[in-house]
Amino acid sequence: MTTTDPVAAARAVAGDCARAYQDIFADRLVATYLLGSLAYGGYSPAVSDIDLAVVLTDTRDGDASTMNTTTETLRGQGSLQRKLSTFWASLPALRAGQDDGRFPALDRLQLADQGVLLFGDDVAKQVARPATDELLLESARFAVDVLASDEVISEFHNPRRLLVDMVWFTKAVLFPVRFLCTGTKTAGRAATNDEAIAWYLAQPQPIAASLVRMATRVRAGHPLDSAQITSELAAGLIPLYRHYIDEETRRLLRVNAPAELVTAFTRWRQRLE
């Protein structure tokens, strides 16, 4: 059955993918859930992922390979399937606040608070909620790992992919906005894109406001205008990241974060000069 409703179409793909994991893991699969914007709202057909959570009875040698192979096979089945992002772990680990598969703290929190059950037993209330400091440290490590690489810093200084890849453009602009909102307004849970954008643009003289508004329009499906984006990126992207890094560094110092993490942020800031 086909549908013109993008949310319904994405949910249908999520259901098909959940059944595929069920076929692979059989009685070891406890439950599958929708996460992300398909669970809490705000799904954007242009740029949003289809986030799934797979909860297993236990983890065994070979599970990571099986999960990766299955996910890549599913992602190769169509344009919607390419949006698939799967988080997974065992129920005992989730109860203990641990990750024995691929299930970062922010996503475990999202499962506990907002996961939408697709198949199996509803165990979301059994998932341990990560502490606020754990969420801060993990999101900071994610930011350094993903956004402070040589490749990304070079791209920020001399944009190429950002001019043609609407998913990367919106993520690059809105990641720091979400991080800032999460750390300032919604500590203890991850801010959604919609609430982070609204919060950020309501601040007095927000840095790179026009760039954030442009990313919001692109996220809603408006086409990229490379000429306009070039000037907006040049004026706003690096100042936006400097602002985020400065604010995050202050938060890390307040919670006595590991010295190497604070140093990583300091070096990241220097490379964006």
Automatic annotation (TrEMBL):
Q: What is this protein called?
A: Nucleotidyltransferase domain-containing protein
